[in-house]
Amino acid sequence: MTATAATGTIGRLLPVAACVAATAAFQIGAAIAKGLFPEVGAQGAAAMRLVLGSAMLLAWLRPWRDWPAKPAWIPLLGLGAASAGAILFFYLAIARLPLGMAIALQFLGPLAVAVLGSRRPVDVLWAALAGLGVWNLVGADLAADRLDPLGLAAALAAAACWAGYILFGRVAAQAFGRSTPALAATIAAVLVLPVGVQHAGSAMLAPHLLPLAALVALISVAIPFSLEIFALPRLPARTFAVLTSTEPAFGALFGFLVLHERMAAAQLLGVAAVIVAAAGSAWSSTRRGPAVATDAPPT
Questions:
Q1: Could you please report the per-residue DSSP string of 42-78?
Q2: Is the pLDDT of residue 28 over 60?
Q3: How far is C-alpha 128 from the chain's CA centre?
């Protein structure tokens, strides 16, 4: 292989590697965040992650420099509210469910957006496959009354919020561009902070917790966002969407490695079915073109 060919190969692989690393970082951050739950609960952890994460994004992107002449306030506020709900409900879900299960259930949100927005018969297949995967995930535990109903409800609420995140985000991103995630995260922080304070109070200011919270924000926000900004212009939209669809697999992996959470074989098959359904829907419905940053997972 010549030096030019090797350089070209590396150039093609780097955006893929960046996207995969960003997807993994989201789940590593979620797994580490559970270390905050015993002292501040899921609500306090979500508030700390959003406050610190939004501060990082504001310091980096400085959205006030490129403020649009006619801001699209309603889509931006909707995006911020959806971001707040997605993160808060996701943290509430992983407090009661295995990480891999929670993120797989959350994927029903973007999958529903893709399927309902398409008239392709093949998308019925992806919806059926996702339904089969969800049943494998929760069916046995639900029948045996071993599944936490509040955890299940929180995961489904997070899915609905992620759907709203995508729909509002596509409109808001047209007005605010690269500044959109920073502004949405700031709105989300304002909305979730009172919930965290009401639940955890001054415990969120404990000095020994702040380094861990900063690490969660760094891994969940700054690192994956930086990697996605690098990858997005260099990947077709469908490739980006398919790579992002592997997130439940990383959730199951890091849930096992970091949290020692074990899932039954049928549940792992359910995770795989949701991944295939999400990836198949993304591949069949997304035309080649620039991906939208706000299609990326908010958690």
A1: HHHHHHHHHHHHHHHHHHHH-GGGG--SS--HHHHHH
A2: yes
A3: 23
CA torsion angle 113 114 119 122 (round to 10): -140
In a domain, 61, yes or no: yes
Q: How far apart are CA 29 and CA 204, in angstroms?
A: 18
* Mean pLDDT value across residues 175-204: 91
Domain that holds residue 212: 17-295
Angle at 165 between CA 295 and CA 294, to 5 degrees: 30
| Burial track 81-114 (b if 16+ CB lie within 10 A, e otherwise) | bbbbbbbbbbbbbbbbbbbbbbbbbbbbbbbbbb
How many residues belong to the chain? Answer: 299
d(CA 193, CA 149): 25
In Å, what is the CA distance from 211 to each residue of 12, 45, 49, 149? 36, 12, 11, 33
What does DSSP assign to residue 286? P
Handedness of CA 177, 214, 234, 170 (dihedral sign): negative
Is the pLDDT reported for residue 248 higher than 50? yes
- What's the token pair of residue 214? 């900063």
186 assigned to some structural domain:
yes
4 assigned to some structural domain:
no
DSSP 70-115: S--HHHHHHHHHHHHHHHHHHHHHHTTS-HHHHHHHHTHHHHHHHH
- Any idea what DSSP says for residue 287? P
Q: How many domains does the chain have?
A: 1
Is 12 among the domain residues? no
Is-contact 203 209, C-beta < 8 A? yes
Spatial distance between the Cα atoms of 116 and 110, rounded to a whole number of angstroms: 10
- Interaxial angle between packed helices 237-244 and 3-33, expressed in degrees from 0 to 180 and rounded to the nearest 10: 40
Name the band, by pLDDT with cuts 50, 70 and 90, for residue 195. very high
Contact 163/86 with Cβ under 8 angstroms? no
